[in-house]
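Quick one: structure for this chain?
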Amino acid sequence: MFPGAQNYSVESLKSVRRWEVRSAARFFSIRAISNCTEFTDKAHDVYIDFYRRTRYRYLSNRVQKESFDRWANAVFESPSLHVLGAFDGEQLVAVGISRAVGRTLIYSTFFSFGTALRHNVASLMLHAMRSSAAQCECIDQVYAGNYGALPGVSLRRVDGAFPFIMPDQPDLFAAEVEGFLK
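Got it. Here's what it folds into:
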């Protein structure tokens, strides 16, 4: 959890993280992806690389282009989800998906090419999410990570959701988080 979203700047990071962000910024640019067609055209290859590296099994049928496209359409049908891409020139190399729930920005989905990870793209994407939150007066904190790592938090299983509940079932996700934040 990163409280004080409006106070965030790259200067507030520890020196190693600051170096990672600045180093990655020499390789990649970050921008919003608001067009589903652009996403489906470019992100599937990134997902395939992610799958080959991790063997991530949840909804692994997304390795098939048609399944990936259906999932992407569902993501872009939800106006509350925000999709960022890291680009090396015109090539998409990483994807991050977030959603504001109450006054918290939840950054829960990230996948990238392995080669981009070697150039600290994950640090740059988190920086971009936190910078975005800092520009929004309606966001007080950013959450990125494992929900179970929060002190005093118990996990509640949501059938059919698994780790991608936010983009897969955004309304159910929002209801669960809003209940937790009360």
